[in-house]
Write a structure and sequence with these properties.
Layout lengths: L4 E5 L13 H5 L1 H11 L29 H21 L8 H17 L1 H6 L2 H20 L4 E5 L1
Antiparallel strand pairs: 1-2
Helix pairs in contact: 2-4, 4-6
Length: 153
């Protein structure tokens, strides 16, 4: 299993179902945000929950998974519980215009497809497919007036 990036819509539409795993997309977020900044579009992380982490669970305070995997996973589970508890009192209700998502995913897919450097550093073929698929779904959402956000879990 593992953590993936998911497309969440502000209202259900059973015809908008991304056909992607989302793991490569999630793992490539920092690189994609850097590319987005260079080419003038919003990075994928701008469509996510950017509130500060719950107190005590800032990622910079996480144990090093390479040095102590058990401690990292214990910390990770506690962080998830703290985030879930926060949702009960401060639910995240931010949604984004799907047109912005389409623009970003389309530009990023073109950048990934045309960069030899990225092809050498990333799983570029899968990343390109995930970006194109996300753009397809977001275009459907845009056309139906549905807003979105990305979540990782």
């Amino acid at each position: 299993m593992g953590v993936s990036l998911y497309l969440i819509l502000d209202r259900a539409d059973p015809t908008i179902v991304p056909r992607l795993e989302g793991k490569v997309l999630l793992g490539s977020l920092p690189v994609l945000d850097a590319i987005a900044s260079k080419v003038g579009v919003k990075g994928p992380q701008s469509f996510m929950d950017n509130r500060p982490a719950p107190t005590g669970f800032e990622f910079s305070k996480a144990p090093d998974v390479k040095k102590d995997a058990a401690a990292f996973w214990t910390w990770s589970e506690a962080a998830e519980k703290a985030a879930a508890a926060r949702e009960l009192t401060e639910p995240w209700d931010e949604w984004f215009d799907a047109a912005d998502g389409v623009a970003s995913m389309t530009v990023l897919a073109k950048e990934v497809a045309s960069s030899e450097r990225l092809a050498a550093e990333l799983d570029a073929d899968v990343l390109y497919e995930e970006l194109v698929e996300m753009a397809r779904c977001l275009a459907l959402a845009r056309d139906r007036g549905i807003r979105f956000r990305f979540e990782a879990w």
